[in-house]
Amino acid sequence: MKLDSKIFDKIRIKSAASIKREADASVLMCEWIGCDQPAKHKAPKGRGFEGQFHNYCTAHVQQYNKTYNYFDGMKDEDQAAFRKEAQTGHRPTWKRGQGAAPNVGGTRRTAKDIDDPLNMLLKEKITSNAKHGRNLRRNEIEALNALSLPEDATPAEVKSKYKSLVKRLHPDANNGSRANEAALNAVIKAYDTLRATGFC
Predict the structure, then answer these.
(1) Domain ranges of the chain
(2) pTM above 0.85, yes or no
(3) CA 139, CA 146: separation in Å to the nearest integer?
């Protein structure tokens, strides 16, 4: 290592005394009247001062916590109302069927009406299947892809394709060979998925 290097030229080491002075300057003192101890703990100031804190030493924060009451000066009815509102995060709520949007009902927006070109808002990819008369779910689309069918395939086309694939991949049609067993299981699983969702 060169002692006259341009890189190490700028390094300066603080003295222990300057580090202690900086540490002492950053230490807060206890806010309790007559206390000169460093404040190591924060204590909430109370209702109406959310996010604001007192700085106390260990002994005084313990004393403060013993007498702290968030609801001090509040009537019993106000306390009960506050606790009830706290269950919903102090946000407005409505009984079922009240406060709903005016277009809820027969004109409720469906997932296909949402403008989401990157499909970030939807948990499932939804595609319209005009022949089937409803929107497809992600697992239905994956099952159709496993059967090598387009997304607008009809239930009759699914059944026909399933039968032909099973006949072709079954070990009985291949002299007992189990080489196509994985593909056959994928086809059966895909067809079972479509049947379970009511597609066919």
Answers:
(1) 16-70, 122-196
(2) no
(3) 10
